[in-house]
Amino acid sequence: MARMPISGDQAIAYGALQSGVAVATSYPGSPSSSTIEFLRGFVESHGLYVEWSTNEKVAFETAVGASIGGVPALMGCKGVGFNVALDTVMVANLTDVGAGLVILLGDDPGAWATQNDQDTRPIAWGSELPMLEPATPSEGITMTREAYRLSRDMQMPVIVRITKTYGALEEEVDLPEIPRSTFVRPHEFERHPMRWISVPGNAVQLHRRLHDRLETLAAQFDSADFNTVTGTGKIGIIAAGVIHTKLMDVLQGADTTGLSILKLSTLWPLPAARITGFLRSTEKTLILEENEPFLETLIKSISYDAQLTTPISGKHDRTVSREGELFRWQIAEALAGFVPGFTPPRAFTPEEEMKSLPSQAGLPENCPYTPVFEILRELSGQLGLSPVYVVDPGCAIKIATPPFEMLDVKYSMGSSIGIASGLVLSGVTDPVIAVVGDSDFFHLSANALFNVAHHGSDLLVIILDNATTALSGFQGTPSLGETDLRHETTPLSIDQIVEACPVVLNETIDPWDETRARHVLEQGLLRPGIRVIIARSPCPYIEKGFCPGYKAAAETAVFTSNP
């Protein structure tokens, strides 16, 4: 293929395609969604199956099934999504993996599109799975191919970790031809006694085998081409994954005579021999990584075992910031304090780097959530009520912005109904309202609704159905009967799911029908028991073409109110 520029997100997709990936699954979440979106362009030409699953646990389980069924699979998730999938991950690390399974793990240092500033590396390390992190798009292609090779050879899921910054990187590369070998062919399942089973009788034995596999991988990573050393100076710098790319930007044009730099891309298991040799060659070493001192802690352990005395700086001594994204200006400041006489050839400023951050479309002026919140605010004032609003992540966060500013509690996907019920159980006498989105309802909130409907409570649940996962890329929801993934899907009815629950109120409103919306929302505020109101109207961005694949579905009865 011709030489062409690609992004980091696309690089992972190309590496997966060149590895023969046949099934790709994910729940929308940045970063990682862009890779899955890019793979959709190969559905027809390469027979690839791409699925937006209802949540990350289901996405991972589907990928596991595809891999043990005989085809390479890719599962994409962001850091908080990995938390959701972890229950199954902690069994899949013990059993064999089949044809090959790669987890594309997108972390979000700085919490640009996430409710927490989570570093998922320690969690992934706790899952005892191999973890790689590319520094450039070209390395992302080769590293993803290597991840599939390792997965097949070692019979383990392999994590390829990226960040928002990596996904936005661009590089001109020579793309090799992508084999058209991903078409799934009907076949009988290959049965292997106990190969896909972990139970109390064999779990410890499988755990021991897992450790043996990790030791084998550690030896391979000691000679991996992804980990490279440049320079022979006595001042050492260890930079992980995409942070190495940022470091090189800071050092461009600088005198690096006194520096020795280790680019570390195999994050687990760590190449202990290579790290030990590097530390021995330096008089002091600075470790550059984002968020937690994950590598710093492990490398200090390696140094201790090797009886080295090389001073190691990083986050523990606050040479670099422990929270948020690690920017180039922060790296420049750290180097200025760590390397005698160092001055970056060019100035990096917080303002400059903030300007380079990708912008996201804000909520539209005619967002259907607006009239719902306006009516609730007005009714509460008229009725002398002060509701407690518990909201899930998503567009419903608009309730926290002017002129509303009514948000009281917000945690994670699917959490609002359970937290709202807990508030009621604690004796809170104010009306408690849980607000969830349509995609969020199918993700985890439905389970919470089942729980409160079963046990009973006294709260109002408002489901805001705009037929898209707007803040994660305008992917469709299970409410739609046909998506743009080039395969038919069966629509799921939120109304019918709620109808199956023993609730005292189950109404669907059009937010723009003010008279009826006001009447139903007033009932919801005043009646006792579990009340569910579905506010349904399509996101106006559908009309603007942000999600054209769903426009046809948006014009059907999916959005017809059910008085």
Strand order of the largest sheet: 3-2-4-5-7-6-12
Topology, number of strands: 20
Number of helices: 21
Write down the overall mean pLDDT.
88
Secondary structure category:
alpha/beta
**What is the overall silhouette?**
globular
Kindly, what is the distance between the CA atoms of the first and last residues, rounded to a whole number of angstroms? 57 Å
Runs in which pLDDT lies below 50 for 5 or more consecutive residues are 546-563
Strand content: 15-25%
Gyration radius over CA: 26 Å
Largest sheet: 7 strands, mixed
Question: Residue share in helices?
Answer: 25-40%
Task: List the keywords.
alpha/beta, 7-stranded mixed β-sheet, 6-stranded parallel β-sheet, disordered C terminus
Can you walk through the features of this model?
This protein is of the alpha/beta class and 563 residues long. It has a 7-stranded mixed sheet with strand order 3-2-4-5-7-6-12. A 6-stranded parallel sheet has the order 16-15-17-18-20-19, sandwiched between helices. Helix 1 (8-18) packs across helix 2 (33-39), helix 1 (8-18) packs parallel to helix 7 (137-154) and helix 10 (242-251) crosses helix 13 (328-338). The chain is globular, with a radius of gyration of 26 Å.
